[in-house]
Amino acid sequence: MLSRTAEYLYWISRYMERAETTARLLDVGYRLSLFPSTKGYNNEWESVLASSGAIDKYKIKYDQIIQKHVEDFLFFDEDNPSSVYNCILNARNNALVVRTSFTPDSWLAINKAYQEILKFKNNKYVSSDLPNLTEWTIEQVNLFRGTISSLLRNDGYNFLFLGLFVERADNSARLLDVKYFVLLPKPEYIGGNIDNMQWSILLRSLSSFRAFRWAYNGEITATKIADFLILNDNCPRSLSFCIQNIVSHLINLKCSPPKVEKIYNSLKDLNATIQQEKIENIVEYGLHEFVSKFITKISSVDADIHREFFN
Predict the structure, then answer these.
(1) What's the domain count of the chain?
(2) φ, ψ for residue 159, nearest 5 deg
(3) Could you tell me the residue range of the domain that residue 136 belongs to?
(4) Burial call 43-55: b when 16+ CB within 10 Å, e when fewer
(5) Measuring CA to CA, which of 46, 69, 80, 94 is 20 to 30 A from 26?
(6) Angle between helices 2-33 and 84-97 (to 10 degrees)
(7) What is the reported pLDDT for 252?
(8) Distance from C-alpha of 156 to C-alpha of 183, rounded to nearest angstrom
(9) Secondary structure of the chain in HEC code, one letter for each residue
């Protein structure tokens, strides 16, 4: 049955992408924590929790925002649906049901990641392990992505990549919001060394620092980095790139043209807006406001996909 198989495939790629983004969020927080506090809007760990969308669940479990607790909550905690552990577990559970719908290598990549994270979870964890754990997560997700490149270009393939880019669009926007939550309160600091350092950390955590320097001749400014991560069509993690790929995989679906058309009609305004927008207008409007609006729209697209294809 296409709808059930498609839903499993859609969520496999979403869970794996989310695992990577959670790891990258932790990497951003860890790198920022190594620098002296700038007395910004929030501390770096609160910003990471807020941007991951997990801060309310965290506060139910913990009274204070402490680095060790945040790291454990976002990486291993079974009570956090978006922890790296739960994402890999859920990806594996979905893959187990539809393992004949993709290559054996894809199943092996997910199962291997699950077996290894079980070992990490059962061992004693210290904060100094975090860089190795985040690097490991990124490697496992990249390995999985590599295995699905040999799939037939059918509807299953398109649902896998629809899930991937819906999740990445949401997550890239959330990673941008990390920077918002640590912006310095005094206008004179904006554009200064600390501000640019924070933006550089974000780029490095996205494995995009070198690509940015190539694209913008090495000049690091907040506006250029925001342009790169929002509007640059050649950056694989930009909001623009994600939206274009969502549109591409959506219109390649053959299963139900009327449903595809319905979802596309709700998406095309966002696609047109982000293709025509200028970074100066976004900065003037407010980066946080723009990102928040984008996240809301992507959530609406996700809801449309579920309503039309999976219900």
Answers:
(1) 1
(2) -70, -40
(3) 2-310
(4) bbbbbbbbbbebb
(5) 94
(6) 160
(7) 95
(8) 41
(9) CHHHHHHHHHHHHHHHHHHHHHHHHHHHHHHHHCCCCCCCCCCHHHHHHHHHCCHHHHHHHCCCCCHHHHHHHHHCCCCCCCCHHHHHHHHHHHHHHCHHHCCHHHHHHHHHHHHHHHHHHHCCCCHHHHHHHHHHHHHHHHHHHHHHHHCCCCHHHHHHHHHHHHHHHHHHHHHHHHHHHCCCCCHHHCCCHHHHHHHHHHHHHCCCHHHHHHHCCCCCCHHHHHHHHHCCCCCCCCHHHHHHHHHHHHHCCCCCHHHHHHHHHHHHHHHHHHHHCCHHHHHHHCHHHHHHHHHHHHHHHHHHHHHHHHC
Distance of CA 48 to the CA centre of its chain: 12
Q: For 208-265, what is each residue's pLDDT tens digit?
A: 888 999 998 877 787 888 899 999 999 999 999 999 999 999 999 998 899 999 999 8
Torsion over CA: 143, 149, 151, 155 (sign): positive
Structure tokens at 80: 């956090």
**First CA to last CA across the chain, in angstroms?**
13
Give the pLDDT confidence of 150-195 residue by residue, as tens digits.
889 999 999 999 999 999 999 888 878 766 655 444 555 555 666 7
**pLDDT tens for each residue of 267-294:** 888 888 888 889 999 888 888 888 888 9
